């Protein structure tokens, strides 16, 4: 380990903006994307469940 | 045809691929987390400071994996799209559609991290250099593929139109890859070359390979998740979907 302190680590030898800007963007997008996809999947599932419920109610009322 | 081959073709139907993908997704997430943690540890705490670029070179641990994936995902996407065009299989188009947004994300990350690397090392966020320009074109190809498919209502026709675009765009991939050789670019040469020993420290190389593996596993996991959503959306009127929800 070559970092002497947390400040030293965060400073990244003067390249903090560039290094953390890169890793930060990756982290942000690679967390956002799966959350959006999970939301999409649950939306489809919820819609399909509603359709199925509507079908069974239709059959009961027929 | 052998029995095992038929067994594999079974997964080419959305109906059997949907549950299989569901089982695989958590495993790919676990692998992505493991390789990512190991890669970040090596990248920040084991790999030494670069003699020329100081700590600024550490951007390589995300820049190279994102760039590799942006090119590789395009090839896989074009492969599926082409397969769909030739064999007219339902799953192929869905797979191509599931890969495109993740590929676009990787291309965007490659350009973003590249700009943040270029500024301190070259003094410019952006230059119209062959490598950078061809990667920007790759990003636009992904966006074009997504927009084209979104503009066509009939999914099977959207698949066909998208496939043609994806296949034509494949020509860009070797251009990106060999651009640093063919033209006199500002961008540095390839990081890893099969013909000679890597010029970087072994720990740097390991950190980068682990991060590349992490991006790989991430891409598979998120594309499989999206493929599941697309399968349900497109097959919503079929009988099997009604039973797949339980």
Can you describe this structure in just a few lines?
The complex is a heterodimer of chains A (62) and B (246). Chain A is an all-alpha fold and 62 residues long. Chain A is built from two helices and no strands.
Structure description:
Chain A has 62 residues and is mainly alpha-helical. Chain A is built from two helices and no strands. Chain A has helices at 6-11, 16-61. Chain A is rod-shaped, with a radius of gyration of 24 Å. The mean pLDDT of chain A is 92. With 246 residues, chain B is an all-alpha fold. Chain B has a single domain, classed as Four Helix Bundle (Hemerythrin (Met), subunit A) (Up-down Bundle), CATH 1.20.120. Chain B has helices at residues 3-9, 14-46, 60-87, 90-122, 130-151, 155-169, 172-182, 202-234, 239-244. In chain B, helix 3 packs parallel to helix 8 (202-234) and helix 4 (90-122) packs antiparallel against helix 5. The A-B interface holds A 1-3, 9, 12-15, 17-19, 21-23, 25-26, 29-30, 33-34, 37-38, 40-41, 44-45, 47-49, 51-52 and B 44-45, 48-49, 54-56, 58-59, 62-63, 66, 101-102, 105, 108-109, 112-113, 116-117, 119-120, 218, 221-222, 225-226, 228-229, 232-233, 236, 241-242, 245.
Q: What can be said about the biggest beta sheet of chain A?
A: none
| Multimerization status | heterodimer
CATH class of chain B: Mainly Alpha
Overall pLDDT metric of chain B: 90
Domain count of chain B: 1
Categorize the overall geometry of chain A.
Answer: rod-shaped
Distance between the termini of chain B: 35 Å
**Main sheet characteristics of chain B:** none
Do you know the CATH architecture of chain B? Up-down Bundle
In CATH terms, what is the fold-level topology of chain B?
Answer: Four Helix Bundle (Hemerythrin (Met), subunit A)
Taking Cα atoms only, what radius of gyration of chain B do you get, to the nearest Å? 20 Å
Question: Can you count the helices of chain B?
Answer: 9
Termini separation of chain A: 73 Å
| Average of per-residue pLDDT values of chain A | 92
The helix tally of chain A amounts to 2
Uncertain runs of chain B are none
Give, in order, the helices and strands of chain B: HHHHHHHHH
Sheet-strand content of chain B, in percent, reads: under 5%
Q: H/E series of chain A, N to C?
A: HH
**Helix content class of chain A:** over 70%
Number of strands of chain B: 0
């Amino acid at each position: 380990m070559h970092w002497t302190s947390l400040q030293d680590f965060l400073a990244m030898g003067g390249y903090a903006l560039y290094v953390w800007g890169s890793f930060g963007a990756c982290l942000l997008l690679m967390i956002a994307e799966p959350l959006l996809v999970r939301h999409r999947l649950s939306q489809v599932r919820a819609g399909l469940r509603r359709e199925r419920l509507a079908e069974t109610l239709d059959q009961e009322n027929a | 045809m052998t029995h095992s081959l038929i067994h594999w073709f079974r997964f080419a139907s959305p109906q059997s691929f949907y549950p299989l993908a569901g089982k695989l997704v958590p495993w790919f997430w676990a692998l992505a987390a493991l390789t990512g943690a190991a890669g970040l540890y090596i990248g920040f705490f084991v790999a030494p400071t670069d003699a020329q670029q100081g700590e600024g070179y550490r951007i390589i641990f995300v820049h190279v994996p994102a760039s590799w994936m942006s090119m590789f995902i395009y090839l896989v996407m074009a492969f599926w799209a082409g397969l769909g065009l030739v064999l007219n299989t339902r799953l192929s188009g869905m797979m191509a559609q599931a890969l495109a947004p993740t590929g676009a994300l990787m291309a965007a990350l490659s350009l973003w991290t590249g700009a943040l690397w270029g500024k301190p090392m070259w003094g410019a966020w952006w230059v119209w250099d062959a490598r950078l320009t061809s990667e920007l074109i790759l990003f636009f190809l992904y966006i074009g593929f997504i927009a084209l498919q979104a503009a066509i209502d009939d999914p099977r026709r959207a698949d066909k139109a998208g496939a043609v675009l994806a296949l034509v765009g494949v020509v860009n991939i070797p251009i990106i890859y060999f651009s640093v050789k063919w033209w006199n670019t500002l961008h540095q040469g390839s990081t890893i070359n099969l013909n000679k020993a890597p010029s970087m420290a072994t720990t740097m190389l390991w950190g980068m390979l682990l991060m590349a593996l992490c991006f790989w596993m991430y891409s598979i996991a998120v594309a499989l998740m999206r493929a599941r959503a697309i399968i349900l959306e497109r097959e919503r009127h079929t009988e099997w979907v009604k039973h797949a929800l339980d």
